[in-house]
Write a structure and sequence with these properties.
alpha/beta; TIM Barrel; globular
Length: about 375
């Protein structure tokens, strides 16, 4: 029998991983109100290492004490104290034989709670579509954000770099920049949320500038052996139907430009699955592989193992990330290797909210 490509070892930058399975970042709103990671979070992340995942990417952590916090009880890497709070989490994962990367996230216009600011900011004063998700304690429409002054943008970029430095000091094995799903970096990239006429808006090259500058700043801020990547998507958490207006041409520009920043990987998120896009015969991850030399991680309904293996065999991605499937069963890799069925995802795992406590209570109720 041929070896299962899912369980072949691989490299993410200088990081050796035992298989091709990665835990995708998932919002868990389980830190303390001041953004400090908890013992509950340490146990939660360590369980994925015990379950066989090659790499764990944390939930989005906010990088500054200005406008970046997005959710109630969201963890941060904005201060030295918050970084120290992550150390027991990292140690627990390492103690279980795993590896863990920190995701850095600025919510921009999709912010639902920020203890540092009473307003939201974005590239332009465009109200986000959709409504705030109740599972993260949101209610009603998103407010209209304030358009950032050009003078404010360099400080936000510097905030990402400083948080990346703190992540390394806390012992993280890698850093991912959240450039997907409709949050601030994606708001700069999207034409309908970026109406600017300065160097940060207008053409695709200008709209992409913020993502490029953040990526360069983070790469420059961390030691060379620490892999740095960026998560990219077409779809948004508040707009699952969104596609890039320029289609395959936009993909070529975006992925090749990001690759040139020196990042180690591009993490392609596809809410609707890894089907072919833009009549190219390739998934969005496959287009990233075509236009970038760095490693590509695919995400989107890859609990279907036929699809997952196909992505690897066709070389549309080198690694696969799981979100709902990983949330449902932290031991998904070990069960797959043993031929055992994993626990399927159930929406009740995120009720009444998206916290770790809700998932733990669901499992207890099911006798797990």
């Amino acid at each position: 029998m041929k070896p299962d490509p899912i369980f072949e070892p691989g490299r993410l930058g200088s990081l050796s991983l035992p298989n091709r399975l990665i835990v995708a970042p998932m919002t868990r709103i389980s830190a303390t109100p001041d953004g400090t990671a908890t013992a509950e979070m340490a146990a939660y992340y360590a369980e994925y290492a015990k379950g066989g995942f090659g790499l764990i990417i944390t939930e989005g952590t906010y990088p500054d004490t200005e406008y970046s916090q997005s959710y109630v009880n969201q963890p941060g890497l904005a201060t030295k104290a918050q970084a120290e709070g992550w150390r027991p989490v990292v140690d627990a994962v390492h103690g279980a034989g795993g590896r863990i990367a920190a995701q850095l996230m600025h919510g921009g216009a999709l912010t639902m709670h920020n203890r540092f600011a009473s307003e939201t900011v974005a590239p332009s004063a465009v109200q986000p579509v959709g409504e705030q998700p109740p599972r993260y304690h949101g209610r009603g429409a998103y407010p209209v954000p304030r358009a950032l002054n050009e003078s404010e943008i360099p400080a936000i970029i510097a905030g990402f770099a400083a948080a990346a430095t703190r992540a390394v000091q806390a012992g993280f094995d890698g850093v991912e920049i959240h450039g997907a799903n409709g949050y601030l970096i994606d708001q700069f990239l999207s034409r309908h949320t970026n109406l600017r006429t300065d160097m940060w808006g207008g053409s695709l090259a200008n709209r992409l500038r913020f993502a490029i500058e953040v990526a360069r700043a983070v790469v420059d801020a961390v030691p060379a052996h620490i892999p740095v990547g960026i998560r990219i998507s077409q779809t948004k958490v508040n707009d699952l139907a969104h596609v890039w207006a320029g289609g395959a041409a936009d993909a070529a520009t975006i992925f090749s430009a990001l690759d040139e920043t020196g990042i180690s990987f591009i993490h392609v998120s596809s809410h609707l699955g890894c089907g072919a896009v833009f009549d190219t015969g390739l998934s969005l991850a496959g287009l990233a592989r075509r236009h970038a030399k760095c490693t590509v991680i695919a995400n989107g309904k890859l609990e279907d193992t036929t699809t997952a293996r196909g992505m690897l065999i066709r070389r549309e991605a080198e690694f696969l990330s799981l979100a709902k499937a990983a949330l449902a069963d932290p031991h998904w890799p070990n069960k797959l290797a043993a031929g055992q069925p994993p626990v399927p995802f159930d929406p009740g795992m995120l009720a009444p909210d998206g916290s770790i406590g809700s998932t733990t209570a669901w499992r207890a109720a099911q006798g797990q």
